[in-house]
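Workshop exercise sheet. Pairs work together: one partner reads the sequence aloud, the other fills in the structure field after running the prediction. Swap roles for the next sheet.
Pair: D.N. / O.F.
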Amino acid sequence: MIKVAAAIPGVRVADVTYNVQQIESLIAQAEGRGAEIIVFPELSLTGYSCQDLFRQQLLLDKAEEGLLVLLDFTRKLDIIAVVGLPVRIGSLLYNCAAVVQHGSLLGLVAKTYLPNYNEFYEKRWFASSTDMIAQDIYLAGSPVHVSPDPQVFRTCDGACFGIEICEDVWAPLPPSNNLALAGADIILNLSATDELAGKHDYLLSLISQQSARMLCGYVYSSCGYGESTQDVVYGGNALICENGRLLAQGERFSLDAQLCMQQIDIDRLRSDRQNNTTFRTAQDGAQAVIVDCKPVSPREFELIREVNPHPFIPCDDKMEQSCEEILNIQTMGLVKRLQHTHSDKAVIGISGGLDSTLALMVVVRAFDKLGLSRKGIIGITMPGFGTTDRTHQNAVELMTSLQITQREISIAKAVTQHFQDIGHNMQQHDVTYENAQARERTQILMDVANQVGGMVIGTGDLSELALGWCTYNGDHMSMYGVNGGVPKTLVQYLIRYLAQLPAFAMQRSTLLDVVDTPISPELTPADSEGNIQQKTEDLVGPYELHDFFLYYMMRFGFSPKKIFVLARHAFKNRYDDEVITKWLQTFCRRFFNQQFKRSCLPDGPKVGSVSLSPRGDWRMPSDASNALWLADFES
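Structure field:
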């Protein structure tokens, strides 16, 4: 995690002394709040809108003096400051970004693409970086190497950043492309963007997409109040993005200085780059000069960025759209399989729980899309020793209202006989007692499928696969698993979404009651009042925690230590450290121990960024050791 800041100082056009004071004030604030890098707008020492005043030697001299003042101001500060100023090298004037730290001028980056249209005539004053001749110069009393070659600056912690200036990012081939491919984790943009109706939305899209395309952090600082309003107005855009996501933005059209701060997760970005073969291929030939920044004093880490406790759940404004898309993926996966097998029959076990309910709704949608009779859906309830009235009633009501074929086959007699056959004491409610029931149910489903010429639809979800919370060759097995890519926390949202659709108004109350029912495999007897006694989350832990662990381990390859830091921040008002560590250890242990079940999964559609299919996203030896992960957890 690296803390960055986009700063928008107050400015007076051509008043370098005033501008330096404003910049110093924001640097001091950012340093006090733990920022490691701060970026200022384009030509921030002089103001962007000086126009032909850039041809005045006095202004250029004052800009250099202003940089000297900043160098002295930062002599005892760890923060890296990037400021804009005009710099004359030989007979050419360049629009530059100066990188300052610990009183040293670490580097100078010139703008490449110069606009020369409308009211912006930068080519009237400035030369492009492509016109620059590599050489050593002195600026503000400091030696610095200048070159047209791209530069990547590396902090003492190993985070790397590159710099482009305003128009550069609007170009067909932005310098940030090469900088990111050459290793820059973060792109800093010193900008001067005028405001036009509708332009801000386009700018947000542009910066977001560039950060997504290059799998990088992007920090954008554009000049604001105080710039000349002779022909245009500058609103002061402070934006911080990470891989397509806007993390923070400042207040536009403010009369006050803005300091927009956020943390960028370097591990997260590098994980995506490592796994993205297209990015790796594009890196061939990308080069940049590496410039090392100064060492800094150790600082206490504070996590300030928001961490979503439910990373699998779509954000509220896109909830309905995302739920419909996920259901369509599940439905179309099953539609293809039904057509391929020329099957008009589907067999599914209905328990009245979350997973079987979602799977049933997907099957109904698939049959409706194909124009098949719902009577071809054979829903089977298989009451056993732990089945409660609530779940059984919900299962029956759901099947009745959906008008599918219903069958009820009790497993009690068959399992009792099986226990006698193998010599198992029925009073011993152990793993044999539980798994025998799950396997008997699967046997019934498979045999009925053979009987009617149909296929068994699996109901197990992604969270259960991660924890191995399924019986091997029991509910673990099917002919097509429609829920295999859906985590438990998302299942609930999908059912709630289905409940509010007009097409399922008759099932609404039943669907909502299914969501409110405690999650349970119902493999041990109910309590004396007929209520569910075996609650899954009491045994393996809260699914919202396990889904959180699963997401960050699978999506980004984070270590248990980092996952713990994120989890305690995300769930700070819900779970204490003891609870989080208990279930994180359980997750690390079970995830490794249960891989053998995932190595032979039935086919099923991937619906999100995380999948455990052994044919797709996750290929892991079933006998891999978890020692490293448990040791990291213990530390």
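Discussion prompt: The chain is about 40% helix and 20% strand. What would you look at next?
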